[in-house]
Amino acid sequence: MRRFLKVSYEQYRKDSDDGEENGELSKEYEDIILPRRATRCSAGYDFYAPRAFALEPGGQIKLATGIRAIMNEDEWLGLYIRSGHGFKFGVRLKNSVAVIDADYANALNEGHIQIAIYNGGDKLLRVEKGEAFAQGVFQKYLLTEDDNPRQSERLGGMGSTSSGN
Ligand SMILES: O=c1ccn([C@H]2C[C@H](O)[C@@H](COP(=O)(O)OP(=O)(O)OP(=O)(O)O)O2)c(=O)[nH]1
After folding, report:
1. To test the ligand 1 pocket, which listed residue (99, 104, 106, 135) has its Cβ within 8 A of the most ligand atoms?
2. pTM (2 decimals)?
3. How many Å apart are CA 114 and CA 62, to the nearest integer?
4. Which of 82, 124, 148, 165 is the most buried (most CB within 10 A)?
């Protein structure tokens, strides 16, 4: 069991910058493309920009992707910058690698994947709507023999399980 789905329009609207109900946003939502691999042996599922954006050097943006990832519980999805953008523009994910946990899909925000990127180079980056800008690789993770998670279920999104106690 492993697949990508769209979050609901309500969730997309809530998490989009403008958050407003308008024709443009619902068209944007309709047009969201599920991540796809470029070739038979591509490891990464390309994530396509739900809207066009431009990033000046030093600029940053957080994109609500409209996507949730369903996967097996011993897997995670690693998100990385699109290699070409990293090489040509010095663009990177703000958190270097985004760790998408298997139980995030059940969080109250429907597991809505957010991608934050930063232009660390000296050129303007323009990304068109529908252009690949990040890639996600499904991976397995291992447990320690005395593994003992602090809580069994995830409800919130980022930062919701931060206490070490
Ligand atoms: O760039 C990111 C990083 C994370 N997430 C989602 C998926 C992940 O499963 C969840 C929580 O992320 P993480 O565990 O890395 O966040 P945290 O702030 O370190 O801790 P917490 O587990 O408390 O949420 O947020 C994103 O959508 N985009």
Report:
1. 99
2. 0.93
3. 7
4. 82
